[in-house]
Amino acid sequence: MKTLTFKIEINAPKEKVWSLLWDDTTYRKWAAVFCEGTYAVSDWKEGSVIQFLTPNGEGMHSVIEKKKVNEYMAFKHLAMIKNFEIEPVDSATQEWVNAMETYSLTETDGITVLEAKVDTTEKYVVFFNDAFAKALSIIKELSEA
Asked: What is the pTM of this model?
């Protein structure tokens, strides 16, 4: 596994950026860069399950490992989902078990720095480099509007 880090400065308070990150409507807008129609199913509480899904039922079964409102969210990926069913962990999916995805927000003088980190395999480095750059740009655009 390799950890990729992405950062962007946003001219908006961290509370606004946080809201846009995790509100269902705006989450779907920026997450669409990973797969059109992507959405999340969760109660968004620390320790709760969260499923990141595409319209055809593929995605990740994860847990919200840590949540500090307006500052930090950490997801630990536990298993893959296919046809809306959690897949048993096997040799093909084992490498994604316990992969982390985190988002942190720090604000100074009204400028929020959003930092996203994601664990990935070499196979997806190019995809995530492109997708996260686009996703953070969308979050910036929504936050500054």
From this structure: 0.94
